[in-house]
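Pair request: fold both.
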Amino acid sequence: MTSNTKDTPEHGPTDRRSAEERREQLIDAAVEVIADQGLTRATTRAITDRAGLALGAFHYVFDSKDELLEAVIQRVVGEIDATLGATAEMGEPATARRLEGTELAVEVLERFLRRAWAYFEGTRTLQLAQYELTLHALREPEKHHLAVQQYDLLVGTLSGMLRDVTSELDPGTSDELARYVVATIDGLLLQWLVDQDADAASRRLDRYLTTLPAIVAAHVQS
């Protein structure tokens, strides 16, 4: 009797590749549905419909909706961290190279935040999904670590960048400064998602950036 099941040698690689492709399709669709309709309406049917797949495809790839949501959280966190990490690794502008110590940290931090904000503005759907999933992780004790991981990654990226540019920020100080900055950007981002006013958000970011020298100095002094 012939069969094209995934455990036969001649069909295994093809089926595995197909499963991986469907997995990515479902994760993409879940991000969109969560952002558009909220987590409560992100049913497996809604997600498979958005992905253009049969309902059976979901059960072929994931054992449960919770497994899919965990994969979505990991995707969102990984994408944001990778993007911000790449931004942090870009070379300092010429003006920054003439600075030292905390002045250099302020210059590099401002450059980082402007580029990060441009990324946030271009990924509104992803940011909406991130907030939905963070709240979901906080409500489920077994998923709380995913919310913690999300912020630890962002803080770690910023903190490492700050330590690389000046020795005046020890690990504890750079971590506290990074958490403060992430918390502020979180607030600005949430307000932008609510009022959908890009110009107002840009003005608020500009005002915040003018306070960076005082914020960095306060953390160093403490």
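--- second member of the pair ---
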Amino acid sequence: MAAAYGEGDASFRAAGGEAGIEALVTRFYELMDCREVARDIRAMHSGDLTMSRDKLARFLCGWLGGPKRYQERYGSISIPGVHAHLAVDGAARDAWLTIMAEAIDEQAWADDFKAYLLRALSVPAERVRVVCEARRGAS
């Protein structure tokens, strides 16, 4: 019996391993550059997205059950913590998820994995919003 998504490396394998994750991240940032809904979240990034692409791909690799590439290069991470300095509100969270949903939908993955991944990504996206809004409220 195959492992369920979220168990072991099942999600990593369903994504096509590192190559599949790289394709997703590349498409995500391409869409972020050209979709009006992403204008504000794109402005939160530097002009050169090389490091953002590398960090997201490395994070997703380990987060999906594959090799811990992010930790190998950058050390441990708290997704909400590293985004706490940004003005991420509900609209920014939703814009990020909208662009990610489009990028996921374009991948040649099983539909149930696509749905699983978007649901799973909504959890850290919401945590980022909560931390960012709490920090702004404390300022």
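Observation on the second member. The longest helix spans residues 111-138.
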